[in-house]
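Need residues for this backbone.
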């Protein structure tokens, strides 16, 4: 690839070791993790400081050069993949991966956007603190991507989404100005909360370069139970009981169907079925506390005994060792990889009022089967916060391109039903390219207008992550 005149200006501004222009160097940055999208770029920039980011964005705005921020490339909606423009510049903060401070009195951690989430969890753990954000991609996802998409994960029931863990951010605006909002205050009631505009904006308003995060007391005592349920309705009733009896100790309440377990058993070696017989659905619940493992175990066993007596689950097994905890979680966490091994499929990351989930699952399946009677549903998710991964695979024996040919009609049925129940078409994965058109359909005209006006204030030249979100 020939170095463009603009790429040379980038080199002059931040150094040749931070700007990559050869075809071989740029190619790995042009596609998403799922291989659904592929774009173009004249350069990849990997700055080492916030000041470098400021120089990059100022140059890009002055020439109307589009910028595509990219984290760990674990997103599922194509939000970090450039479009077809040859002028794109991909911006990675992977070299900005320092922990700037950790305060065990205020219980805060200030880290740069290129930090790997798992590394930040470990840093907090080493200081006898907990960073509760946890998701399947934590070994490779970066903090900046978590912030840009307002990532969810398995602990939302107890700790909330990413935005609930953020006290302040440092960000670079498209014109190169640095917004220094890295305050660690728990209370700052002084007008508009600008950080919350940037969190979840998918890189369309600016680039978050660092964040101040809340830490919590560690919860080393963990108990996990897998319960077999006959229906989503039974899972809902079990959730109500556990929430009432276990309160804030409950940090995860996951649901997955029997089909999901079948798929994991078929594609993931070393995973065992939780019970001797197959069940229509399963619930995985984790309780965690700061101390007294015996008391936590006794609480969970008492509640599960009550659930069985009230016919709120058909069977249950409670973990007795850390190894069993990890084994139980593996059954849930490997569902996505098992479906990936099974072949192309439709992903629907939706959220619903929790009480509506059972009725939604029944009505949505009826709608989908009217369009495609033999489709295979694999439904799982964070039931306790209303988030379902309503995933569908092609009928057995169909060609791999089946969903490419029929997916749009099926998705329309699913998302129309989500809207009917007052839900959201994106619970935790964002909009990106994948859901942009659906976003325009299901958001109200007023919300869309306000978002466009906010975009125009932050990014009047329209250089930030074009083709995403709006």
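Answer:
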């Amino acid at each position: 690839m020939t170095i463009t005149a603009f790429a040379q200006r980038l080199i002059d501004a931040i150094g040749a070791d931070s700007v990559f222009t050869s075809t071989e160097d740029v190619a790995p940055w042009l596609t998403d993790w799922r291989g659904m999208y592929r774009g173009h770029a004249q350069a990849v920039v990997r700055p080492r400081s916030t000041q470098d980011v400021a120089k990059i964005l100022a140059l890009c705005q002055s020439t109307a050069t589009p910028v595509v921020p990219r984290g760990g490339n674990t997103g599922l909606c194509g939000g970090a993949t450039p479009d077809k423009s040859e002028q794109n510049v991909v911006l990675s903060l992977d070299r900005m991966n320092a922990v700037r401070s950790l305060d065990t009195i205020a219980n805060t951690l200030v880290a740069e956007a290129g930090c790997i989430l798992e590394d930040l969890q470990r840093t907090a753990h080493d200081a006898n603190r907990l960073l509760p954000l946890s998701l399947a991609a934590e070994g490779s996802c970066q903090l900046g991507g978590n912030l840009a998409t307002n990532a969810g994960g398995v602990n939302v029931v107890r700790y909330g989404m990413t935005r609930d863990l953020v006290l302040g951010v440092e960000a670079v605006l498209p014109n190169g100005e640095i917004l220094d909002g890295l305050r660690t205050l728990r209370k700052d009631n002084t007008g508009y909360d600008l950080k919350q505009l940037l969190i979840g904006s998918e890189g369309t308003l600016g680039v978050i370069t660092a964040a101040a995060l809340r830490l919590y007391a560690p919860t080393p005592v963990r108990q996990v139970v897998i319960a077999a349920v006959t229906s989503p309705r039974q899972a809902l009733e079990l959730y109500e009981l556990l929430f009432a009896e276990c309160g804030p100790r409950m940090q995860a309440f996951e649901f997955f169907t029997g089909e999901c377990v079948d798929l994991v058993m078929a594609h993931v070696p070393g995973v065992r079925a939780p019970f001797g017989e197959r069940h229509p659905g399963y619930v995985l619940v984790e309780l965690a506390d700061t101390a007294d493992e015996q008391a936590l175990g006794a609480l969970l066993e008492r509640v599960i005994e009550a659930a069985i007596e009230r016919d709120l689950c058909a069977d249950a097994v409670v973990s007795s060792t850390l190894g069993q905890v990890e084994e139980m979680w593996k059954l849930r966490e490997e569902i996505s990889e098992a479906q990936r091994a099974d072949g192309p499929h439709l992903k629907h990351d939706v959220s619903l009022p929790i009480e509506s989930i059972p009725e939604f699952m029944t009505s949505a399946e009826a709608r989908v089967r009217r369009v495609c009677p033999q489709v295979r549903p694999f439904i799982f998710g964070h039931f306790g916060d209303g988030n379902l991964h309503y995933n569908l695979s092609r009928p057995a024996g169909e060609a791999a391109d089946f969903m490419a040919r029929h997916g749009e009609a099926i998705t329309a049925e699913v998302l129309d039903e989500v809207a009917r129940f007052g839900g959201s078409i994106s619970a935790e994965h964002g909009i990106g390219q994948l859901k942009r058109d659906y976003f325009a359909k299901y958001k109200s005209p007023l919300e869309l207008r306000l978002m466009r006006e906010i975009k125009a204030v932050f990014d009047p030249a329209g250089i930030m992550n074009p083709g995403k979100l709006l």
